[in-house]
Design goal:
Blueprint (H helix, E strand, L loop, with lengths): L6 H12 L3 H24 L9 H14 L7 H26 L19 H18 L1 H11 L5 H8 L3 H18 L1
Helix pairs in contact: 1-2, 2-3, 3-4, 4-5, 4-6, 5-6, 5-8, 6-8, 7-8
C-alpha cells in the first residue's frame, strides 16, 4: 500500500466531508484517489488483456459510488472496506454481464492466492464473490478480511493496522477464511 496520510487525517477529512465541507472532499479525493487507482490497476492486471473495463473507469465508478453513498464513514478502515466492496460489486456485475453474453463456456479452474487469480475470468470472479458471501453468512469478520485482501489489495500488516490488532491475528483469520474458500471453490 502506498503511504497514505495518517489514518486520523483521512478520518478527519471523512467527517468534514460528511458535514458538507467541499474542500475536505477535494483534499480527501487527492489523498485516496491515487490509492484507489492503484487498487483498480491491480484488479485489472489480473483480468484478461482485452478487458473492456479499464482501471480508470473502475476507480471512477467506485469513487462516484463512494461520493454518492449515503453513509457515515466511521474511519479509514470503513472507507477502504466500502471501496473494496464497491470495486468487487463492479467487477462481479461486469463479469456477470460478460458471462450472460457467452453462456455455456464451461468453468475455469481457480487458484486462490493473496489476490484474485490471474485470468480467473468472469466465472472465477463470480465464484469467489459467492464464496465470500457464503463465508460472510458464517463469519462476517473473516469475509471482510478477504475483501480487504482480494478486492481492496491490502496486505496483512495493513489490515492489522486498520483493525488495531497484531498481524498474526489477521494471518490466522485469513488462513481460516482461505481454507473455507478453497473448500467452497
Amino acid at each position: 500500500m502506498s503511504t497514505l496520510s495518517q489514518p486520523s487525517d483521512i478520518t478527519v477529512l471523512l467527517s468534514r466531508w460528511q458535514s458538507g465541507d467541499e474542500e475536505a472532499q477535494t483534499r480527501l479525493s487527492q489523498l485516496v484517489y491515487d490509492k484507489l487507482h492503484q487498487l483498480a490497476a491491480q484488479c485489472m492486471y489480473r483480468e484478461r488483456h482485452n478487458h473492456t473495463l479499464q482501471p480508470t473507469a473502475l476507480v471512477n465508478e467506485a469513487f462516484i459510488s463512494l461520493s454518492g453513498a449515503n453513509v457515515s464513514y466511521q474511519d479509514q478502515l470503513h472507507f477502504f472496506n466500502l471501496a473494496g466492496r464497491i470495486m468487487r460489486r463492479i467487477l462481479v456485475d461486469h463479469a456477470r454481464a460478460r458471462q450472460a453474453a457467452k453462456r455455456g463456456d464451461g468453468y475455469a479452474q481457480l487458484t486462490l492466492t493473496d489476490s484474485i487469480g490471474h485470468s480467473a475470468g468472469p466465472e472465477g470472479i463470480i465464484a469467489i464473490d459467492q464464496a465470500i458471501s457464503n463465508l460472510a453468512d458464517i463469519d462476517p469478520a473473516k469475509a471482510e478480511i478477504l475483501e480487504l485482501q482480494f478486492f481492496a489489495g491490502l496486505t496483512t500488516l495493513q489490515i492489522a493496522r486498520l483493525y488495531g490488532v497484531s498481524s498474526k491475528t489477521i494471518e490466522r483469520s485469513s488462513k481460516l477464511a482461505k481454507a473455507f474458500l478453497h473448500q467452497a471453490l
